[in-house]
Amino acid sequence: MPDLRPIFHIVGLLLTGLAVLMLVPAAADLMTDNPDWFVFWVASVVTGFCGVALILSNRRPNMALNIKQAFVLTTVTWVALALFAALPFRFANDSLSFTGSVFEAASGLTTTGATVLTGLDAMPPGILLWRGLLQLVGGLGIIVMAIAILPFLGVGGMQLLRTESSDRMDKVMPRARQITIATARLYGLLAVVCGFGYWFGGMAPFDAAIHAMTTISSGGFSTSDSSIAHWPSTIVVWNAIVFMVLAGLPFTLYLKALKGSWRELVFDDQVCLFAGIVAVASGVIAIWLYATGRYDAGAAITQALFNVISIITTTGFATTDYNLWGSMPLVVFALLLSVGGCTGSTAGGIKMLRFVVLWEMARCYVRQLVTPRGVFQQRFNGVPIAPDVVTSVMAFIGIYFATLVVVALVLSALGLDTLTSFSAAAACLGNVGPGLGEIVGPAGHYRSLHPAAIWVLSAAMIMGRLELFTVLVMCTRHFWRS
Q1: What confidence score (pLDDT) does residue 165 get?
Q2: What is the DSSP-derived secondary structure letter of residue 260?
Q3: What does pLDDT average to over the chain?
Q4: Alpha carbons 97 and 284: distance in angstroms, whole number
Q5: CB 93, CB 124: distance < 8 Å
Q6: pLDDT at residue 176 in the model
């Protein structure tokens, strides 16, 4: 049984930070005379009290974490933050059920963007701002987790990004602190520039700020039920395209590029594969849209590129209801729902890193068939890939699709049709947000789903964001043995 005191101490620190964050939407509602300010204030007090209590009751001289504690910390942190972040949604004037509140909070923190809220255009500023802030801080947490923590846990091939190891992970927390500071500066700068781009394109300052938060975090929450389609501006659309792409690429490579290593960003295997998939998928859909007479050439390219990038980066914005485009684009979108962006970005999904490893494995296997006595080395960015990484990647992809099927079957058992079941499962497990079909598609929402389905999808969002094995390993008896 791992010592839980360091875990509770860190969770307490994070809850205290969440409590401070709740004061921002409280101030927004107070300035607009909306009574929800009191809800945010009370939620802040409750969250802060629990956070401080955990800090004070779990202090100890040695706060170093071992591998087991890191697994527990990663899972407990996201669950605890989602539960406390749900308080404003539960008790605001337009209150949701407890089930819906947890779903909305989990969707925000995991930057999924699936929602049970409707009537966003008339929502008070506090709730809209809270949704944006959850995705903003969630996105930053995702980057830090992917760069500083998951490589040390060796989850699903993430050890490929590990640069140094420690059995007790005594270097993880200092490394996480350094990465958080460097990444937060870049992350904040990109969000500010993105916000100015939206404002220049015609959005009101408040809308621009919220959309900047949810774009750079690959979140997809909007201040309008129509999403980006509410602003018929070419500048808004292309601003979103640019920053969705930036959010879907590895942030570590940006930090290296700022130090002069631009080649590592441009020629990175993940980035090249990402660009190739976007180009092919967008080209195929653009040709379809033009050939079927739905758009002229320019509009077809823009619409195809925007929605392909939105799905592959798991942002979830929409400029139109692409369910109306016909069967071929829907097949492409269905395939993209589980792909995801690059490892080290804010995107979800399986991610490009694993597809690069999968491609290398297939390439070497085919060459081995042609030349049985040949020796072929699988490589990532020119570096040999260890056999345990290949095994981890294969196991992850297998478990990923097995989990997707299980979630989809549960949703089907709860009365949803096949398209809705599988697309909702893929959209939540991959942290995309909107799925396919009338119910959970870009023009729909998750509010009408059975409460049990909402809980299943909430769990899927968190499991998908935590790379599955981080949660599943805690379900084994061996993990809890001393």
Answers
A1: 40
A2: T
A3: 91
A4: 42
A5: yes
A6: 63
